[in-house]
Amino acid sequence: MKESVLDVLMYLFETFADADIEPEPDRDVLRGELVRAGFDDPHIERAFEWLDELNESELTAAYRVTKGALRLFSDEETRRLGIEAVGYLMRLREIGILDPEQLELVLDRLMALDDDDIDIEQIKWIVLIVLYSQSDQQVAYARMENLVFEDDPASLH
């Protein structure tokens, strides 16, 4: 059995992101595919909920950030992400892959994973999924895709 909601999300993304499938594929068909791939129902259902929450327009609109605002991370965010991951997110913000609203959305989706230890590899995938879900972010998505699929940590410099 596969381990986590993120594993389900990564599998869905890797399998279907570039496939020519309908925008809203049948959930029962997807569920069957995921079960055959070794995922269990609770993780599958939670991954579907996670994606639904990502796609809710109210969620995206909830993260309007005042221009020039300074982002302070909560104790919970810092504890779950760690200093290195927080630094990575801020670097993505600095180099223009994430704008302030996208950073908030990524943080929301990371916190929704319910994992206590979130590492940089997981962050890369969540950023990639969030950017993919936003049709006007092709350039940022392409830049992030390069970061995900190249293993050079210096690529952020």
Explain how this protein is built.
With 157 residues, the protein is an all-alpha fold. The protein folds into two domains: 1-55, no CATH class; 68-157. Helices cover 62% and strands 0% of the residues. The chain has nine helices and no strands. It has helices at residues 5-16, 27-36, 41-55, 57-61, 75-81, 83-94, 100-111, 120-132, 138-149. Helix 1 (5-16) crosses helix 3 (41-55). The longest helix is centred in the first third of the chain and has 15 residues, at 41-55. The protein is globular, with a radius of gyration of 16 Å. 23% of the residues are buried.
Categorize the overall geometry: globular
Largest sheet: none
Total E-strand runs: 0
Q: What's the overall average pLDDT, rounded?
A: 85
How many structural domains are formed by the residues?
A: 2
Structural class: mainly alpha
Rounded to an integer, what's the Rg over CA atoms?
16 Å
Distance between the termini: 38 Å
Strand residue content? under 5%
Report the order of strands and helices: HHHHHHHHH
pLDDT below 50 for ≥5 consecutive residues: which ranges?
none
Task: Determine the fraction of residues in helical runs and give it as a percent range.
Answer: 55-70%
